[in-house]
């Protein structure tokens, strides 16, 4: 038996609970891991709320929270190649098994070996935050010297995107609340406080003719308030709002396989990306970790250490 944190129905924080379950068994193409660290992502509470049933509507209750994990391989399912029992790994739980658990199963194609020099805490931030940033930067493919606007720069994906953009020679403008200013500016970001008035007007003070690319990580009215700033609507990209297509832009296409995981891990090892983990919670503090991200005001990345 192993312990897990999840929910017994779709809803708010009141449906969350700890429960014991037998160690899941890896099916074809899956691996069983002992989870050392789970990343905390915005998607976690959205799945709990039931607003994306295409992803977890088929999973029986109780469901385990979490999409990101780093840990050690305990067993291999049939057909798994390139991994061995005992390997330190990290990856996505795209099969509905969750990651806020002492043990879980991950699809082997969505897992990579952890570089020895990469801490488990950092590796657990790669699957959602790190690869989203890489997908956005690669899709926009802006030449050095271009100006990129990151809408929502202070969260984990925003900070990773800013670091990748700066490494590629881009000028970066980022929006966020005032509490995110200090960390964003240390990365070379020109910061715009969305609580200080007209965001579009503030951005135009730094980019009078508009921006060459826009990566949105907020969605909704925040996206719409800045969409007009991009010179070419084909360079309008969102990772938070599918309705970006109504504005002429597109939703970022995600690459969830081993090559993307390895690419981001390598960028962390060589110093290009620091995930900016601002707090590590214990497993018993899982509800607190979820609540912190659910406010939408956390800076950087939060993780849960399971041992």
Short description, anyone?
With 307 residues, the protein is an alpha/beta fold. The protein contains ten helices and 16 strands.
The major β-sheet equals:
7 strands, mixed
Quote the distance from N terminus to C terminus: 16 Å
- Work out the helix count: 10
The backbone outline, from C-alpha atoms, is globular
How many β strands by DSSP?
A: 16
Describe what you observe in this structure.
It is a single chain. Helix content is 28%, strand content 27%. With 307 residues, it is α/β, with parallel strands linked by helices. The strands form three sheets. Strands 3, 5, 6, 7, 8, 15 and 16 form a seven-stranded mixed sheet that branches. A six-stranded parallel sheet has the order 11-10-9-12-13-14, with helices on both faces. Helix 4 (126-140) packs across helix 5 (156-167) and helix 4 (126-140) crosses helix 9. The longest helix has 15 residues, at 126-140. The protein is globular, with a radius of gyration of 19 Å. The relative contact order is 0.16.
